[in-house]
Amino acid sequence: MFFALLVGARVAGLVGVFLSLPIAGVAIGILDIDEMRGEKTEQPSG
Fold first, then answer.
1. Rounded distance, CA 8 to CA 44, Å?
2. What is the pLDDT of residues 1-46, one digit of tens each?
3. Which DSSP state fits 32?
4. Three-state SS string across the chain, please?
5. What gap in Å lies between CA 11 and CA 2, rounded to an integer?
6. Around 33, how many Cα atoms within 13 Å sit in the side-chain half-sphere?
């Protein structure tokens, strides 16, 4: 998310800072990036 803030600030300034987090959240949801969701996946025990 910090990376999204930096990119948003670089591209669109202050408005980009506020819009970057929702845009990044939508992108993570659409692309189904499990590593960035913060959810722990169950690992098989054994």
1. 38
2. 889 889 999 999 999 999 999 998 888 788 886 666 666 666 666 5
3. T
4. CHHHHHHHHHHHHHHHHHHHHHHHHHHHHHHCCHHHHCCCCCCCCC
5. 14
6. 11
